[in-house]
Amino acid sequence: MSRFELWELTPVIDFYIHHDNLKAFVKPVTNVSQWTLMVISSGTFTYEFNDKKGLVSDGDMFFGPPGTELKRQIITPMTFDYMRLDWYYPNGALANDHLSLPLGKIRVSNAQRLFNSLQYLELLESRDDRFSKHWMNHIVSEILYIYCADVYEINMLFNMTSEDALMNKAADIIKKHAYEKMNFKELAHEIGLSPVQFTRRFKAAFRIRPLEYLTTLRLKRVQRLLLETNYTLSEIAQRSGYQNEFYLSKVFTDTMKVNPSEYRKKYK
Length: 268
Known about the structure:
Layout lengths: L9 E13 L6 E2 L4 E15 L2 E5 L4 E4 L5 E19 L15 E3 L4 H8 L2 H4 L5 H22 L13 H12 L7 H7 L4 H12 L3 H19 L4 H8 L4 H12 L3 H8 L1
Antiparallel strand pairs: 1-6, 2-6, 3-4, 3-5, 3-6, 5-7
Helix pairs in contact: 1-3, 4-6, 7-8, 8-9
């Protein structure tokens, strides 16, 4: 069913629960027949399945595929939303094997929108009427759209906004100068904060650190230039705010889990 785009899929939740301050998983090793989706409000855990492993923390999502042994361990007490669900194509066929579904740890740039959507799930959990069930599935669709907005570079068109006016100003500065040399110490001084205060306050406002936001902006441009131009990696680095192609390649590979040349070859 490759003719269907990822955003056309429809989720159907089979199980949902909200956990507060969970200190250990009841089943540290699981293997379920449906997709696992976890959205972390606070805390950290490690995961391992197939050839993937990593650390998931506050502000992250985790997608686990069906029929796969998943090993997981809580490192610091976690508050999170947990779901088991199936995906369906518009024609009603099961879409659990769709190749574009995200896997493992996922961090979206518009975390504020993500958590605004999630706030309803816990309220709907205890209700059994058809509308509430439909609304829960709609919220998961919204989560998928937020992820797709990153894939299609739409989230970067939105202004990062929060109730913290100073951090809104900082986010605007980062976005405006993302492809130039960026010094967060100077930016922190400019807005009247220490570097540590700035990082903590920015993350509290947007659930993402300043460097992560800057890296997201830059790598989205790198991805676009890799696919839409024949620029060398050195030229792309110059146009994306990186000091040289070697550092760009390291950041890209660490984040995307594939090096720039392989990404260009696979997707162009």
